[in-house]
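Researcher: Sequence recovery benchmark, item below. Answer with residues only.
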């Protein structure tokens, strides 16, 4: 494992970034599952991708995401598919 060595090496930093990204994706997927369970509308694929990207960006600390506002906007953007 590269992290056992020095964190100054490019390989160790790349591995650390990969681990962080994987953790963010897992957290984003968990949040997305909770979001999908709480809404009766089914989002189309584009809306799910949009929402997952927003959640991932939030987990990476790139944006300050207000879920109460972002979810309805993503649903509106995606034009929900009615069951």
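Model:
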């Amino acid at each position: 494992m590269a992290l056992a060595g020095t964190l100054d090496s490019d390989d160790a930093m790349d591995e650390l970034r990969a681990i962080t990204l994987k953790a963010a994706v897992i957290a984003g997927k968990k949040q997305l599952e909770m979001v999908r369970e709480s809404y009766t509308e089914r989002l189309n694929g584009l809306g799910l991708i949009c929402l997952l990207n927003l959640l991932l960006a939030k987990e990476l600390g790139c944006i300050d995401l207000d879920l109460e506002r972002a979810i309805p906007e993503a649903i509106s953007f995606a034009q929900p598919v009615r069951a």
